[in-house]
Amino acid sequence: MADELTHRRRLLVLAICCMSLLIVTLDNTVLNVALPTLQKEFDASVSGMQWAVDAYTLVLASLLMLAGSTADRIGRRRIFVAGLVIFTLGSALCSLAPNLESLVAFRMVQAVGGSMLNPVAMSIITNTFTDPAERARAIGVWGGVAGISLAAGPLVGGALVDTVGWRSIFLVNLPVGLAALLLTLRYVPESRAPRPRRVDPVGQLLVIVLLGALTFAIIEAPRAGWTSPLILAFAGAALLGLLGLLRYEPRRAEPLIDLRFFRSAPFSGATVIAVSAFAALSGFLFLSTLFLQDVRGLDALHAGLWMLPIAAMALVCGPLSGRLVGSRGPRIPLLLAGATMTASGVLFAAFDAASSDGPRLVGYLLFGLGFGFVNAPITNTAVSGMPRAQAGVAAAVASTSRQIGTTLGVAVIGAVLASGVASSSYADGFVAAARPAWWIIAGCGLAVLALGALTSGRWAQESARRAAARLAEEEKEKKEEETARVTDDRY
């Protein structure tokens, strides 16, 4: 079916998929500049603001792989349409939220729909663009939209909050979502995987327990106490979820998370790099917008304008990074990303760059440069050396890692801020707590730098080749066993 589509029709399908990516990814960061407004309107605590952001990314991280495998089984367009409906409905509910608790719940509804869009849209693109060169260009456009929408979220949010109000950041999703829905029904062909993966409900439940309990423990610990029975119980639940995954998933024929992938050093490195880079981004934006508005006294629009250097550098460096990955491999982009993100964090932590306009601008430019370079090589590094049949699953794990990083960044940075603010007046406590928070961001950049160097060399590539060969051999043995079993059943 995809081969029969005209070039113009394929481009239209790409545009529709990018529309869904735009609204889902924008909602990762667009709420940041509205947090001080929400804080005043709903009398929210730091942990309340964290939940307004993390409720969305937490559900996304938990359901991405389930949505992808479900779409492969019952139809990608069908799941994509359902995602657009749920996401648009969730956006409408968010715009009507009467209190913070309702907003958090409606953000989770949004995220359920969002989890059905991004991985499924990538599958639609892969199925639509069958020529390798066309597919590479289409994925390049997709990656560029993702990077720009993430970095531009605070700017868009600031403009909307100051001119229309915070509810408008959700209302703008309605026309885009409805347009994407109508265009999908008209132009996007249905497709399914020839051999879809089986459902893994136990693995899915363990992932939800692990991520949900860990996020709750980090966010609520400053208020409840790090050693309180409640926090220890949730930390214990997170540990049990992790141990359950490590014990249960290897026994599954088609697990939700195939732990064999982690035999590949590039794959393991890409997973941790994705968590580190997106934790740094979400923590950076969360910290910056609260500092600019609550400490420096800027309005939402001007705070969003200060994020413009990040968006601009992502716009410039994202395509450049993609070309470097294609021509020279992921090593150079990862080293540049790690070095500049680390330098930005150190500039704020050690030299108090946030207090002066010039150093602050330099810090934002450095961070934007780093984030612009890091996004493209993550997926490339994750699938490096993987068998083609496993590349989609490997890319889905990388996407999930991005969302986990986004969730943990807000949770950890917010917990550090909440602990500092609780001990003194808000402004003084914020400035004091910001220093260790900036060091954490610098540490995330250093992790990107170190892992980028470690997992992109010859040793790492050899480990990827060994892992791919072993995976291919195990898959071949599995198919032979299934064939033999079917033959025995017949006779």
Q: Oligomeric status of the shown chains?
A: single chain
**What's the overall average pLDDT, rounded?**
85
Give a count of the beta strands, DSSP E runs of length 2 or more. 0
CATH class type of the largest domain: Mainly Alpha
Structural class: mainly alpha
What form results from the Cα inertia axes?
A: globular
Number of helices: 19
pLDDT < 50 stretches = none
Query: What is the fourth-level CATH superfamily of the largest domain?
Result: MFS general substrate transporter like domains
Helix coverage percent: over 70%
Name the beta content range.
under 5%
Structural domain tally: 3
What's the topology here?
Elements: H1 7-29, H2 35-42, H3 46-74, H4 76-95, H5 100-115, H6 118-128, H7 132-163, H8 168-171, H9 173-187, H10 201-224, H11 229-248, H12 265-295, H13 300-306, H14 308-328, H15 331-351, H16 357-383, H17 388-421, H18 426-454, H19 458-490
